[in-house]
Structures
1.
Amino acid sequence: MPNGDDTGRPILVLSNRLPFTVERRPRGLEKRHSAGGLVAALEPALCARGGTWVGWPGTELRPGEHLSSGGKPYRIAPVNLTDTDVDRYYHGFSNRTLWPLLHSFPALTRFDQRDFMSYERVNDRFAEAALAESKDTDLVWVHDYHLMLAPRLIRQGRPDVRLGFFLHVPFPPYDIFRLLPWDRQLLRGMLACDLIGFHVHGYARNFIDCVERRLGARVDQENLLVEHGDRTVQVGAYPIGIDFERFEGLASAAPARAGRRERVVLGVDRLDYTKGIPHRIRAFERLLELHPRHRENVVLLQLAVPSRAQVAEYRELKRDIDELVGRVNGRFATATWSPIRYLYRTLTPDRLTALYRDADVALITPLRDGMNLVAKEYVACQVEDPGVLVLSQLAGAAETMREAILVNPYDIDGTAEALHRALTMDEAERRSRMAALRRRERRDDVVSWTRSFLDAAASAHAALRPPSDEEFSAWLGRYLSRHRLALFLDYDGTLVPLCEHPRDAVLAEDVRETLRLVAARPDTDVAIVSGRSQADIRQMVGLPELIYAGNHGLEIVGADVPEFKHQDLVHYQGRTAELARKLRTLAADGAWVEEKGHTLTFHVRAVPEPRRRVLAEQARSMINDFGFQARDAHAAIEARPPIGWDKGRAVLHVLRERYGVSWSETVRVVYCGDDETDEDAFRLLAGLAVTFRVGSADTMSAATRRLPNVEAVHALLRWLARRPAPDL
């Protein structure tokens, strides 16, 4: 399929459904082949390259039941779902939460924590099935909104494998997507991939915007790149096509329509509130009102394919359509003519393509659609006297099918006039428009779509450039323009790279000089907030003009800030040393205990996995049983006295002592840190500061923005040192 060097290497497809649906019959399991666009797109690639298709078979398999690929040159790996899984993961979160939200219908979106928890569990199950089948796989290709969390677990299990994701529905703007309480989890799940594809550039830009504003990730809007920890994720637009030759062949072979009298306006949709069927019927009704010449000469043939009948909103939609069709027919019908013919059923491909071929106009007017393949199928079937495509401008297909007559489906009068134009268009214009549409859809067919995505997944893409002065100015320039700056910095992992032993984390001289220049500005104060002891961190930095908060802020000293030691520490004198002695009994296989006066750290960085996890859990239990507070850090467990104090409270203490209780009126705060202990500050400073989480993106962060590494922090310091003086 692809033209690159990876031709023939196996791939793994992960989708909600297998390429067939299994039904339980009295004679056993029966497979019904799926005729959807995804199967048509992916089966040729799997047949050419080999691999595995992982998905739900449509029914729960009993112990001992197995599925084969039916002679296909790829494997089938079914994921079993219970009735509860189907109800909460599929009908619940996927179709009552994500489907309406992604299609920009927030009023129809249901937010249910139990549904999301089921979605998480099922995504984990899909990911585990993919990992079990991925040994010889070159690419894992995850599909659609049902599995937005699965890539993250796959990445953890196979950090070496290439991961691709394609979303087959729209991706909404930031103001809609952020309504989802779990939006950041879904974004992070998708960003575990190397390549993320959407149908059109608009959806890709919406995704980039959400990632930047909700995760604080660095992005390249022009090249559609996202920096996610130490990886750069490529985002792109890949408009899906159809099997053009198949539809063209079916249309050519279909029997001719007999006894044609009225002209036909055709609507073909799955019964769904996103498809705009009621709006289309009202537009047709308005056509008959505005242009009586079409009465008894034109019919609207609306085919509605049954869908999700167990969902209340869909049952209500069907009732509304039934009533609307009855009202319009009752208003305009004559003894020999009914304006609307409404079919609620599924048609065979040969009958459907005959309808496409014979329709004078295709009225495809979804209120929102990821692409809309019906519009493309209609075009492929125009093998005789060509008709006219009237297409919603809110469908993804409208970005490329420019020769269609584009309408706003909410504009009933406008759609009616567009329909009148289509019905009265002369043959020369019809042929010209349809010829251009057919050339493009023949060229950009489903094979072309698959090839373009696989080629992009196989290609190396450039990493995002290091943070620039322009970026720092965009993030902080206006924020700092009229205020004093209070800059708070963690040490290990922020100013210096993490080291095997804390004593090796030596501050480079050029960084120390930059810190000195920042602190020397009359409009800036600098504080170091560290888990190290106050004496240790002062010695490591070596700049007396800075403020130092050691032991996560339990002890503070520095210029213009009264010396502080938390008053409750007296109750724990001597107990830290006793806890250290107990923890040393666990210090094996490279683990060791760092005493820091009022706190201590149990380090496991040098311990091999999985022994590391075992020792860390034992240390955590011992710390908690001893009455101290255990906190996760980088390859370590921190032990602190349980006195309700952390880096966030220490920062607020410094701000109040240095600038007074009204500090927020005159001071702007910037905080940089790299681990879980800094999250206390990020959470407490939310809305009060610009905060930066440095390093890995594996952990969710409350920080405003992300920086990839300590070098980016150094670049930020250089910008702060030479930025223009604020207008105080």
Note: Confidence is low (pLDDT under 50) at residues 1-6.
2.
Amino acid sequence: MYPRLKPMAALLPLIFTVQAQAETLQVARLDPIMVTATRQAMRSSELLSDVTVVESEELAQAGQSTLGDILARQPGIEFYSQGSNGATGSVFMRGTSSGHTLVLIDGIRAGSATLNQMSSWSRIPAAQIERIEILRGPASSLYGSDAIGGVIQIFTRKGDGPFKVNAEVAGGSYDTSSATGGFSGSQNGWRYSLNANTYRTGGFNSIKNPKSSAYNNDRDGFENQSLTGGLAYAFAPGHEAGASIFYSDGESKYDSSPKAKDYRNQLAVSNFSTYLKNAFTSNWTSTLRLGRSIDDSKNLTNHVQSGLFRTDQDQYSWQNDIRTGIGNFLLGVERLDQSVSGTSKYPVDSRTIDSVLAGWNGRYLSHRLQANLRYDNNSQFGDKTTGSIAYGYRFTQNWRANVSYGTAFKAPGFNDLYYTQPGGSYGNPDLLPESSRNREASLHYETGLHHISLTWYLNQVNNLISWNPVAPGSFIYTPVNVGKARLEGAALAYEGQVGNFNLQANYNYLDPRDAESGRQLNRRATNYGAASVGQQIGSWEWRVELHASDRRFDDAANSRKMSGYAITNLYGAYNFAGNWSVFARVNNVFDRNYELVADYATPATNAFIGIRYNPK
């Protein structure tokens, strides 16, 4: 061998080893383990549901992007917020309403029982999240009320491996600054973690239309502090007890009428859960879980309290996972206690929901089946039974197809039922739950470095709750069950690696209709999607993101049109010393002017730069 080629030959085994390791990591990333879709840990390739897992790497690239921005890049999800960071936000999954997505934090429900939806998205920093699991489609047979469009489960950071410290400091446009720090690890059966984050931004003027009665030409800033922690102890093989906590407290400015005043919202959200997991036999695992979530919102006008709304939710569950020769069984019981308090006095301010659930999934040759059934008894309106069934067939090692049918429902919220405003709007205690029937089919192609899926769905929602004027032209509103919605769509998604480029893309077609009037449901686009390409070259990493949507209507009458848009984001990082790296993100690179909600502004071109210490 030529002398000059000997060093190259010596490097070949290393090069091939690094390439093999990269491909192994890519395969694992394309087929992650997921819990939310069945309430049991399974590989994504074994599931019969439409799912996405957002891993820690993508969250680390978020920079100034909010949790809503991250969700909006995922298949089947549209997100809108009413202005500057810290404002109220909403998720539309597969065209369903903002209250039709159930949100869990470490297995415990989150959100407001008065608004009857999750609106505190800005209070959950990406820096505090380890991973996000997204289940699209009806899931009431697994989780009960609210899961008409799907489920988003957020897992906070956990400890594993040797003791390590992480830290990050960053700043950018709109006088934004952020700092994160914490530690985690495991030893002698113990696992532990603790992370804190502080965030502040001067923001921008939320309402951009000077003709709006709420227009106020000022900056609507936001500041937030959050803490996550976890502790677990495995006291014997297969036996573990643990607890986790999430707390976030922030204040945001917003615009309202009359516009000359200073309006602020103080919102504290917290989530605590504890569990005891016991593998009594090699085939039977029991999990007891207790948790509490709090959504505590306070409105201030000129620094004087003008409104207070608090939700307390206590959740108790006992789940049994049983493996047999004919498949895996799920048996569980749950209890949810909800109570509300504040400036609005409700004739009924608490309710309990007792539930029983059962599930089974199994495989025979190339066939896979899943069935779930759940019974919920609500002290306010009675009982509801929901179910789902799914079938999958694997044609070859790379091709598989699934079909499914499921029902779901959403119980009315406390405002819907009991809200009273002296001389003004009022609730309706005779409301029925919203209910849905969903059909879907999907086709998947999976190989080592690529995953492509095509999913079609048809979701029909009945007894939609709408706040309508009590008489034409009246400013007094009350909710009623009206009409039906027909949501038909398809999603094409790809994730994979071509050469050393990491690629992600999704395209969504949606026909969201009021089944009676034929009009398009407001704030839903017919075509939308996202794509990204990234690469890691030695110590350098870069990523380009594109997010696009066509026109939408801001109102139910389809009289106020909002134009389509496309925005481009850039991310880059450089590892300059061991576990140290610098990173930068530029959002809306081409400074597109667009609307998510009529009259409300969206961010112009903005940049975020920081330094990070993160041992692997």
Note: The longest helix spans residues 6-30.
